Amino acid sequence: MSAPSQDTAARAADLTQAARLRALFEAEGAVAVETGVLQPAATLLDLYGEDIRARAYVTSDALRGEQMLRPDFTVPVVQMHMSGGAEPARYCYAGEVFRRQEEDPDRPNEYIQAGFEIFDGANPPDADAEIFALFQRILAPLSLRAATGDIGILTAAVAGLSIAEKRKRALMRHIWRPRRFRAMLDRFASSEPLPQARAALLAAADPFAGAGAEIGLRRRAEILERLDSLRQEAADDPIPAGIVETIDAILAVREKMPFALENLRDIAVDLPWITPAIDRLAARGDALAARGVDVDALDFEASYGRTHMEYYDGFVFGFYAEARPDLPPVATGGRYDALTRQLGRGREIPAVGGVIRPGLIRELGGLA
Fold first, then answer.
1. Of 121, 174, 218, 293, which has the fewest CB atoms closer than 10 Å, so is most exposed?
2. What pLDDT tens digit does each residue of the chain (368 aa) get?
3. DSSP code per residue over 200-266
4. For residues 137 and 131, what is the distance between their CA atoms, to the nearest angstrom?
5. CB–CB of 73/355 below 8 Å?
6. DSSP per residue, 322-362
7. How many angstroms separate the CA atoms of 139 and 146, rounded?
């Protein structure tokens, strides 16, 4: 019998490591669960919009409609829990996820994950600390750099702005798309007059006069609705420059956690509505220290996690091999309270989770 190929041997090693990780999570009180490889596309499209198509494999059948090869485990685990799971609850899992790769042929489009999820509203800062400290302990032999952040501080800053609700919703929707968020923030803060052609179009009594035949895909009613929206936006007062500078100051915070906390408290003098989010960060720091994490040496970046899956809405973290900058993070995770509300049909519960990639552990030499 011939020896197994390198890819086959690597897959077997990754599956073995994933099983070991799942056993470690079970030892921490998590219940092992399985989720389907095919997931309903409608749920993921509702959560992320059409952007999810760029990174997922989509198929369909006559009975079940559009389906996606599982892009991650968190959404199906949340759905499973919110349909009737007891609370509090801890779950773990291990298996394959699938991501389309259209730009980098060296990045895998199928790989193994092992994960741990906590649904517990009794003490969210301690639940954050529990999962981070567990991952740090498991991955300690690899000497990885830990990065942390908190999306909740930026969302609190935007939620408290005294601006039109439509503008606020637009900013909140694009928090996880930094370039779009930046462009939109600059547009809403601009006091420059509209370009002459656009101003004339918005002022026209009949914007379709002399426009010729209607050949586009949009209906006339949709175009008129969009023009009304642009008129309202043009009439809104711009976001004050000082507020924009303060949001920029939040995004620029990148220090060890104690100094980051101090910096954010200074910023809260100008944006007092972010104080509760900063208090949660402080409570998390205390909980991390109580679990043996060296908080004084822990990196904190206020903008960290904004390019990840956008269900994270609070604490976020990742573990990186600094000697291998070519590798993605070995582990990532965060808090996703809003996701339980979206999928809970009227119910919600604070939740936090994370995943580890066994294949990257193997590339770094494995765990002792």
1. 218
2. 455 555 888 899 999 999 999 999 999 999 999 999 998 888 877 777 666 777 788 888 888 888 888 888 998 999 999 988 788 999 999 999 988 876 666 777 889 999 999 999 999 999 999 999 999 999 999 999 999 999 999 999 999 998 888 889 989 988 988 999 999 899 888 765 556 655 555 556 566 666 666 666 666 666 666 656 665 665 567 888 899 999 999 999 999 999 999 999 999 999 999 999 999 999 999 999 999 999 999 999 999 988 766 789 999 999 999 999 999 999 999 999 989 988 887 788 999 999 999 999 999 999 86
3. HHHH-S-TTTT--S--SSS-HHHHHHHHHHHHHHHHSPPPPHHHHHHHHHHHT-EEEHHHHHHHHHH
4. 10
5. yes
6. TT-TTSPPSEEEEE-HHHHHHHTTT----EEEEEE-HHHHH
7. 10
3 state DSSP class of 192: coil
Burial class for 70, CB neighbours closer than 10 Å (0-12, 13-18, 19+)? buried
Instruction: Give the closest residue to 185 by CA, choosing from 149, 161, 213, 212.
Output: 161
Q: pTM of the predicted model, to two decimals?
A: 0.86
Rounded to 5°, the CA angle 97-72-93 comes to 85
Q: Which two tokens stand for residue 34?
A: 């399985």
- Reduce the DSSP state of residue 59 to 3 states and report it: strand
CB 190 within 8 A of CB 180: no
**Strand blocks (E) in the chain:** 31-32, 38-40, 58-61, 65-69, 89-98, 110-119, 145-150, 254-256, 299-301, 315-320, 331-335, 351-356
Counting Cα atoms < 13 Å in the Cβ hemisphere of 166 gives 12
Q: Please say whether the beta carbons of 30 and 116 come within 8 A.
A: yes
Question: Would you mind telling me the total number of residues written for the chain in this entry?
Answer: 368
Give the C-alpha distances (Å, rounded to integers) separating 5 from 10, 12, 95, 96, 106.
8, 11, 21, 19, 18
Q: At what angle do helices 241-251 and 178-189 cross, to 10 degrees?
A: 160
